[in-house]
Amino acid sequence: MDLTLTPAELAFQRQVDEFLQAELKPEWRGVSDIDNRTRPEIMAAWQAVLAAKNWLTAGWPAAHGGLGWSPMQHHIFKEACSQARAPKISTMSIGMIGPLICVFGNPEQQAFYLPRIISGADIWCQGFSEPGAGSDLASLKTAARRDGDDYIVSGQKIWTTYAHVATKMFCLVRTDPHAARPQAGISMLLIDMTLHGITVRPIHTIDGEHHFNEVFFDDVRVPVSCLLGGEHKGWDVARALLAFERSGIADVVAARQLLGDAAAIAAGEMLGSASLLDSEDFNNRLTKLEIALDALEILELRVMDAAERKAARDHDASMLKILGSELKQKIHMLGIEALGIFASAWPDDDAPVHPSGSGDKLVADALFARATSIYGGANEVQRNIVAKILLKSAFEI
Amino acid sequence: MDFQYSAIQNEFRATLRRFIAAHAGAAAKTNPRDNARRWRTDLWTEIAALGALAALLPEAYDGMGGDSVDALAIMEEAGRGQAGAPIIENAIVAAGVIGRLGSARQKQQFLPAIAAGTNKFAFADGDMLAPGGAAPAFKLTDLGGGKYRVAGRQAFVAEASDCDHLIIACGAPETGLTLVCLPRNHETIMLRPFRSLDDRPAASVILESVELDAAGIIGPEGGAGQAVSTVLDLACAAQCAEAAGLMASLLNQTITHLKTRTQFGQPLANFQALQHRLADMYAAYELSLSLTYKAAILGRQPGTAAHQAAVSAAKVQTAEAARLIGHEAIQMHGAMGMSLELPIGHAVKRLKAMEPQYGAAAYHLRRYQSLRTAPAA
Description:
The complex is a heterodimer. Chain A is an alpha+beta fold. Chain A has helices at residues 7-23, 33-38, 40-52, 71-83, 91-104, 107-119, 234-244, 252-267, 280-308, 316-339, 362-369, 379-390; strands at residues 124-127, 143-147, 150-158, 168-174, 186-192, 198-204, 210-223, 227-228, 270-271, 274-275. A four-stranded mixed beta sheet of chain A has the order 1-4-5-8. A four-stranded antiparallel beta sheet of chain A has the order 2-3-7-6, with no helix packed on it. Chain A has a two-stranded antiparallel ribbon with strand order 9-10. In chain A, strand 2 and strand 3 (150-158) form a beta hairpin. In chain A, helix 5 (91-104) packs across helix 7 (234-244) and helix 10 packs antiparallel against helix 11. By secondary structure, chain B is α+β, with helices and mostly antiparallel strands. Chain B folds into three domains: 7-116, Butyryl-Coa Dehydrogenase, subunit A, domain 1 (Orthogonal Bundle); 121-222, Butyryl-CoA Dehydrogenase, subunit A, domain 2, CATH 2.40.110; 226-371, Butyryl-CoA Dehydrogenase, subunit A, domain 3 (Up-down Bundle). Chain B is 50% helix and 17% strand. In chain B, the strands form three sheets. Chain B has a four-stranded mixed beta sheet, with helices on one face. In chain B, strand 9 (262-263) and strand 10 (266-267) form a beta hairpin. The interface between A and B is large, with 49 and 45 residues.
């Protein structure tokens, strides 16, 4: 057992740090969670810098620009970016649909879509959830009926992040309503958002922002050439997403920064004659969260270590997702508590700033962070997955 | 980054697991007190012969020079098999302080005997890690002419009623700590034996006025504090490893119960309320195990601030996980979980009994706070 990085990993870490030092502009640093979600132009500019270095698609298959980084290298890269408070990289474009097209796309699709993803010409959104299909995704109803060289798509998607700025959507549709199992009749279509018959309506969320949308399909003609991975094979394509990456799920570095923000706020709040941070109750709760983060940091490294040896377990990603999202929510709540009455102002530019100077985006971020235990498979579903594996016949800890 | 045991460690783990399972597997059917006695007599000799004690001792004294990760491997198995042997008290605490502080003669006298399992120790730490900073429990007086007197009392000293020698920490680390070694059958030592919650031999140690000469002092007079603190940290980390083994065992037993116990016409495993709680128990186990690994790995450079912080973090996280997993294991076993005939109750009591040892979670939470310079480094 050993906690140190290899000389090659240390050299890689230095290389990443130097790159970030040279290329990450000051105005991009410290972009808050909310800016990451609502100002896609920052994300696009940062992705262009990464693309020039060939690092944007480091995790893709080698034939399509991947660099064959080890799981630990990906981890090092993501941690360094978080440490430098770099903007996020688009999960949907770079993390999801790019790799899916690499694996399931035909040569024509790869030649058309992949360069546009890398250059940022396309922004992608994910058309999975529907009003009647959330955690139970396989019950989705949006229909795609074959008509010559087209599918005619009708139905509705909802909670579609970025649909209002996206140029493309990867969309799960039902192509066989009579399939024996609901999963068997689903296909994935790559849909141009400018097609006639698509209507996008905003949904404003509790943080006061616009990330979500409803998307309506009213007999939209989508060419059959936009089918990804074969007709009725959409469920297999979507499931492949689960296996792509385990690194960066928990984002301990960002959670640690958030904890630091909460501590800075608490240091400026008085409780009796001492600061809130110095009160035993608050300090103990903060310390327990800090220790839990220490633990999560090592757990994530253990998962990376297992992935290096191709021994990652099926429930690792679910466990990291549960722990990471819920721990960060607890830290958010501690920060809100520290803000006191300042947390009760509507979180826009008019709100008074806490004397510590910290926490102006904390309330909005904390509100949106409630979504982290819902999206990507609600934590209840993740707990189902963990329990299912624990209760498998041969499993022993 | 490597969180795997070496091939040699894995081989030793497998040997230990087989040995413990062959004997401790009977724990449920044996009288627990009889079980505890055997882990200090015939099974103690056998586990010593396997090398479980020698593994952690210096090579110069019949040991194999193992480190804190070897201790992790051994104690995880001891916990998993619920082996009630006093490995930590002897191979880590007694051997640790004698190895660091003892004279050549003391090392030669005691370390090979610890390795062979022929001389058992108890360590009275004088409650030095009790929260609240109580006054030192034991006081050493230099009578001059190479003569000393020690007096004091400590209510709970693990293994004190079933050992050959007692090591007593006199004074406090901050003001000068001195270690004294006395044979248990010394005529002026008074012991009030009792069983610990986990059926182990313990005693109140009462020293009215015990006289000894310089040969009974281990290490420099007043200068043992740092070495003792380091050894107690190594012991704390090893006990977290034992706790991890116990928690793994509780999880495995609970999983088996959920799969086999039928109610309302179906196995308990079908009920989502139980599935989700099981997932949370497992996540708590993995989190605390992660910090126990970290503490064991950093234990190779013991006594550093990083090692101390890692030990304290491991203890805090382990105490929390142990409560959750222990109580949920009993709850999910239903009334069966209340029975003394099931091993789970014994595992839960072992976890509870060790919680205040080598510094309770409250002590370690405070120490973790004092070690960090900023809340988010």
